[in-house]
Fold this sequence. Notes:
TIM Barrel; eight-stranded parallel β-barrel
Amino acid sequence: xxxxxTIRNMGAAATRECIVHSATHAExxxxxxxxxxxxxxxxxxxxEGSNGHWIDPLAMLAFLSAATRTxxxxxxxxxxxxxxxxxxxxxxxxxxALCGERLYLGVGAGWxxxxxxxxxxxxxxxxxxxxxxxxxIRRCFDAADDIVEHNGQPFLFRPRPKRPPIYVGGMSDAALxxxxxxxxxxxxxxxxxxxxxxxxxxxxxxxxxxxxxxPEVVVIGALPDDQSFAVEQLGRCQALGVSHYIQSSRYSTxxxxxxxxxxxxxxxxxxR
Length: 272
Protein backbone atom coordinates (compact mmCIF):
# COMPACT_ATOMS: atom_id res chain seq x y z
CA UNK A 1 0.00 0.00 0.00
CA UNK A 2 1.16 3.52 -0.81
CA UNK A 3 0.65 6.35 1.67
CA UNK A 4 0.19 10.08 1.25
CA UNK A 5 -1.57 13.17 2.52
CA THR A 6 -3.44 16.15 1.22
CA ILE A 7 -1.65 19.49 0.98
CA ARG A 8 -4.18 22.18 1.75
CA ASN A 9 -4.71 24.52 -1.19
CA MET A 10 -7.39 26.35 0.77
CA GLY A 11 -7.74 28.43 3.90
CA ALA A 12 -5.00 29.66 6.20
CA ALA A 13 -2.55 26.95 5.14
CA ALA A 14 -2.68 27.94 1.47
CA THR A 15 0.32 30.24 1.58
CA ARG A 16 3.47 29.82 -0.46
CA GLU A 17 5.57 29.20 2.64
CA CYS A 18 3.23 26.61 4.18
CA ILE A 19 2.72 24.80 0.88
CA VAL A 20 6.46 24.52 0.16
CA HIS A 21 7.20 23.37 3.70
CA SER A 22 4.42 20.77 3.70
CA ALA A 23 5.31 19.33 0.30
CA THR A 24 9.05 19.10 0.92
CA HIS A 25 8.57 17.74 4.45
CA ALA A 26 6.28 14.98 3.15
CA GLU A 27 8.92 14.14 0.55
CA UNK A 28 11.70 14.07 3.16
CA UNK A 29 9.63 11.71 5.34
CA UNK A 30 9.39 9.28 2.42
CA UNK A 31 5.65 9.52 1.85
CA UNK A 32 4.59 8.24 -1.55
CA UNK A 33 2.30 11.04 -2.69
CA UNK A 34 0.67 14.38 -1.90
CA UNK A 35 -2.75 15.49 -3.11
CA UNK A 36 -4.78 18.67 -3.68
CA UNK A 37 -8.53 19.20 -4.02
CA UNK A 38 -10.78 21.26 -6.27
CA UNK A 39 -13.18 24.15 -5.85
CA UNK A 40 -13.50 27.23 -8.04
CA UNK A 41 -16.39 29.36 -6.79
CA UNK A 42 -17.19 28.69 -3.13
CA UNK A 43 -20.42 30.41 -1.99
CA UNK A 44 -20.14 32.60 1.13
CA UNK A 45 -22.46 30.35 3.16
CA UNK A 46 -20.56 27.12 2.41
CA UNK A 47 -16.87 27.98 2.57
CA GLU A 48 -15.88 24.64 4.18
CA GLY A 49 -13.48 26.25 6.65
CA SER A 50 -11.54 27.94 3.85
CA ASN A 51 -13.00 31.46 4.08
CA GLY A 52 -13.29 31.17 0.30
CA HIS A 53 -9.49 31.20 -0.14
CA TRP A 54 -8.73 28.52 -2.74
CA ILE A 55 -5.75 28.04 -5.03
CA ASP A 56 -6.63 26.37 -8.31
CA PRO A 57 -5.58 22.69 -8.12
CA LEU A 58 -3.93 22.61 -11.55
CA ALA A 59 -1.87 25.71 -10.75
CA MET A 60 -1.05 24.13 -7.38
CA LEU A 61 0.15 20.91 -9.03
CA ALA A 62 2.37 22.89 -11.40
CA PHE A 63 3.83 24.71 -8.40
CA LEU A 64 4.35 21.45 -6.49
CA SER A 65 6.11 19.90 -9.47
CA ALA A 66 8.79 22.58 -9.13
CA ALA A 67 8.92 22.46 -5.32
CA THR A 68 9.50 18.67 -5.16
CA ARG A 69 11.65 16.14 -6.97
CA THR A 70 10.42 12.57 -6.39
CA UNK A 71 7.13 12.45 -4.47
CA UNK A 72 4.08 11.65 -6.57
CA UNK A 73 1.41 14.33 -7.08
CA UNK A 74 -2.35 13.90 -7.25
CA UNK A 75 -5.63 15.76 -7.42
CA UNK A 76 -8.68 14.35 -5.67
CA UNK A 77 -10.80 15.20 -7.32
CA UNK A 78 -10.71 17.46 -10.38
CA UNK A 79 -14.33 18.33 -11.20
CA UNK A 80 -14.32 17.83 -14.96
CA UNK A 81 -17.54 19.73 -15.82
CA UNK A 82 -16.01 22.92 -14.39
CA UNK A 83 -13.47 23.27 -17.22
CA UNK A 84 -13.49 22.84 -21.01
CA UNK A 85 -12.07 19.50 -22.12
CA UNK A 86 -9.26 20.73 -24.37
CA UNK A 87 -7.65 23.24 -21.95
CA UNK A 88 -7.98 20.63 -19.19
CA UNK A 89 -6.15 18.03 -21.24
CA UNK A 90 -3.46 20.59 -22.10
CA UNK A 91 -2.99 21.51 -18.42
CA UNK A 92 -2.69 17.83 -17.48
CA UNK A 93 -0.15 17.10 -20.21
CA UNK A 94 1.90 20.17 -19.30
CA UNK A 95 2.00 19.28 -15.59
CA UNK A 96 2.81 15.64 -16.35
CA ALA A 97 5.70 16.71 -18.58
CA LEU A 98 7.06 19.24 -16.08
CA CYS A 99 6.82 16.96 -13.03
CA GLY A 100 8.58 14.03 -14.69
CA GLU A 101 5.45 11.89 -15.04
CA ARG A 102 4.60 11.79 -11.33
CA LEU A 103 0.92 12.72 -11.68
CA TYR A 104 -2.23 10.94 -10.50
CA LEU A 105 -5.43 12.32 -12.03
CA GLY A 106 -8.46 11.96 -9.76
CA VAL A 107 -11.64 13.10 -11.51
CA GLY A 108 -15.33 13.39 -10.77
CA ALA A 109 -18.64 14.91 -11.75
CA GLY A 110 -19.00 17.39 -8.88
CA TRP A 111 -21.88 18.11 -6.52
CA UNK A 112 -21.95 21.75 -5.38
CA UNK A 113 -24.91 23.43 -7.10
CA UNK A 114 -23.77 27.05 -6.49
CA UNK A 115 -20.48 26.38 -8.29
CA UNK A 116 -22.29 24.97 -11.32
CA UNK A 117 -24.52 28.06 -11.36
CA UNK A 118 -21.55 30.44 -11.07
CA UNK A 119 -19.82 28.67 -13.96
CA UNK A 120 -22.95 28.56 -16.11
CA UNK A 121 -22.80 24.77 -16.37
CA UNK A 122 -25.97 22.67 -16.35
CA UNK A 123 -25.54 20.41 -13.33
CA UNK A 124 -27.98 17.91 -14.85
CA UNK A 125 -25.40 17.26 -17.60
CA UNK A 126 -22.46 16.71 -15.28
CA UNK A 127 -22.34 12.94 -15.76
CA UNK A 128 -22.27 13.15 -19.55
CA UNK A 129 -19.71 15.96 -19.51
CA UNK A 130 -17.50 13.95 -17.16
CA UNK A 131 -17.66 10.81 -19.32
CA UNK A 132 -17.01 12.77 -22.51
CA UNK A 133 -14.04 14.58 -20.96
CA UNK A 134 -12.45 11.36 -19.70
CA UNK A 135 -12.79 9.86 -23.17
CA UNK A 136 -11.27 12.99 -24.70
CA ILE A 137 -8.32 12.97 -22.28
CA ARG A 138 -7.69 9.32 -23.06
CA ARG A 139 -7.85 10.05 -26.79
CA CYS A 140 -5.31 12.87 -26.46
CA PHE A 141 -2.80 10.72 -24.63
CA ASP A 142 -3.48 7.28 -26.12
CA ALA A 143 -3.88 8.11 -29.82
CA ALA A 144 -1.56 6.44 -32.31
CA ASP A 145 0.07 9.80 -33.07
CA ASP A 146 0.06 13.40 -31.85
CA ILE A 147 -2.81 14.54 -34.08
CA VAL A 148 -6.14 14.76 -32.26
CA GLU A 149 -9.47 16.05 -33.54
CA HIS A 150 -11.86 18.17 -31.47
CA ASN A 151 -14.97 19.98 -32.66
CA GLY A 152 -14.09 18.91 -36.19
CA GLN A 153 -10.64 20.51 -36.08
CA PRO A 154 -7.44 18.41 -36.07
CA PHE A 155 -4.63 19.75 -33.87
CA LEU A 156 -1.25 18.66 -32.54
CA PHE A 157 -1.35 17.50 -28.92
CA ARG A 158 2.16 18.19 -27.69
CA PRO A 159 3.79 17.65 -25.28
CA ARG A 160 2.36 14.17 -24.98
CA PRO A 161 3.99 12.47 -21.99
CA LYS A 162 2.76 9.17 -20.55
CA ARG A 163 -0.90 9.48 -19.62
CA PRO A 164 -1.38 9.80 -15.86
CA PRO A 165 -3.62 7.11 -14.34
CA ILE A 166 -7.23 8.28 -14.10
CA TYR A 167 -8.97 7.64 -10.78
CA VAL A 168 -12.72 8.23 -10.66
CA GLY A 169 -14.10 9.59 -7.39
CA GLY A 170 -17.48 8.89 -5.83
CA MET A 171 -19.64 6.26 -4.15
CA SER A 172 -22.70 6.36 -6.41
CA ASP A 173 -23.61 3.65 -8.91
CA ALA A 174 -22.79 6.09 -11.71
CA ALA A 175 -19.32 6.72 -10.28
CA LEU A 176 -18.66 2.99 -9.93
CA UNK A 177 -19.69 2.37 -13.54
CA UNK A 178 -17.50 5.28 -14.68
CA UNK A 179 -14.51 3.90 -12.76
CA UNK A 180 -15.08 0.37 -14.07
CA UNK A 181 -15.47 1.36 -17.72
CA UNK A 182 -13.35 4.51 -18.14
CA UNK A 183 -10.95 4.72 -15.19
CA UNK A 184 -7.75 3.11 -14.04
CA UNK A 185 -8.75 3.47 -10.40
CA UNK A 186 -11.51 4.40 -7.98
CA UNK A 187 -11.49 6.93 -5.12
CA UNK A 188 -14.26 6.23 -2.58
CA UNK A 189 -14.87 8.67 0.24
CA UNK A 190 -13.95 7.48 3.71
CA UNK A 191 -12.12 4.43 5.03
CA UNK A 192 -14.94 2.40 6.59
CA UNK A 193 -14.28 -1.24 5.54
CA UNK A 194 -17.94 -2.20 6.14
CA UNK A 195 -19.12 0.36 3.60
CA UNK A 196 -16.20 -0.11 1.24
CA UNK A 197 -16.46 -3.88 0.87
CA UNK A 198 -19.87 -4.14 -0.88
CA UNK A 199 -19.07 -1.21 -3.20
CA UNK A 200 -15.74 -2.78 -4.11
CA UNK A 201 -17.48 -6.04 -5.00
CA UNK A 202 -19.88 -4.11 -7.25
CA UNK A 203 -16.94 -2.32 -8.86
CA UNK A 204 -15.22 -5.62 -9.57
CA UNK A 205 -18.41 -7.07 -11.09
CA UNK A 206 -18.84 -4.02 -13.34
CA UNK A 207 -15.22 -4.23 -14.48
CA UNK A 208 -15.60 -7.96 -15.21
CA UNK A 209 -18.73 -7.25 -17.25
CA UNK A 210 -16.83 -4.62 -19.24
CA UNK A 211 -13.93 -7.00 -19.85
CA UNK A 212 -11.53 -4.75 -17.95
CA UNK A 213 -9.26 -5.37 -14.95
CA UNK A 214 -10.61 -4.19 -11.63
CA PRO A 215 -9.46 -0.60 -11.01
CA GLU A 216 -7.04 0.24 -8.23
CA VAL A 217 -8.62 1.66 -5.09
CA VAL A 218 -7.38 4.86 -3.43
CA VAL A 219 -9.10 5.70 -0.14
CA ILE A 220 -9.11 9.23 1.23
CA GLY A 221 -10.21 10.20 4.71
CA ALA A 222 -9.27 11.14 8.25
CA LEU A 223 -8.19 8.25 10.45
CA PRO A 224 -9.37 7.80 14.05
CA ASP A 225 -7.14 9.30 16.74
CA ASP A 226 -6.29 5.87 18.16
CA GLN A 227 -3.26 4.80 16.08
CA SER A 228 -3.69 1.08 16.77
CA PHE A 229 -7.32 1.27 15.60
CA ALA A 230 -6.17 3.22 12.53
CA VAL A 231 -3.71 0.44 11.69
CA GLU A 232 -6.49 -2.14 12.09
CA GLN A 233 -8.88 -0.17 9.85
CA LEU A 234 -6.29 0.34 7.13
CA GLY A 235 -5.22 -3.29 7.34
CA ARG A 236 -8.80 -4.34 6.66
CA CYS A 237 -8.97 -1.92 3.73
CA GLN A 238 -5.72 -3.34 2.39
CA ALA A 239 -7.17 -6.85 2.60
CA LEU A 240 -10.11 -5.68 0.48
CA GLY A 241 -7.74 -4.55 -2.27
CA VAL A 242 -7.02 -0.93 -1.39
CA SER A 243 -3.65 0.07 -2.86
CA HIS A 244 -3.32 3.72 -1.74
CA TYR A 245 -4.26 5.75 1.33
CA ILE A 246 -4.55 9.55 1.46
CA GLN A 247 -4.79 11.21 4.86
CA SER A 248 -7.13 14.21 4.68
CA SER A 249 -6.93 16.45 7.74
CA ARG A 250 -7.40 20.15 8.30
CA TYR A 251 -4.41 22.15 9.48
CA SER A 252 -3.49 25.82 9.59
CA THR A 253 0.23 25.82 10.41
CA UNK A 254 3.35 23.95 9.38
CA UNK A 255 3.61 22.54 12.90
CA UNK A 256 0.15 21.01 12.65
CA UNK A 257 1.01 19.54 9.25
CA UNK A 258 4.21 17.99 10.60
CA UNK A 259 2.22 16.10 13.24
CA UNK A 260 -0.16 14.74 10.59
CA UNK A 261 2.65 13.77 8.22
CA UNK A 262 4.59 12.00 10.99
CA UNK A 263 1.52 9.94 11.80
CA UNK A 264 1.09 8.91 8.16
CA UNK A 265 4.77 7.97 8.00
CA UNK A 266 4.29 5.78 11.08
CA UNK A 267 1.34 4.03 9.44
CA UNK A 268 3.45 3.54 6.34
CA UNK A 269 6.17 1.80 8.37
CA UNK A 270 3.69 -0.46 10.15
CA UNK A 271 1.73 -1.56 7.09
CA ARG A 272 4.48 -1.98 4.50
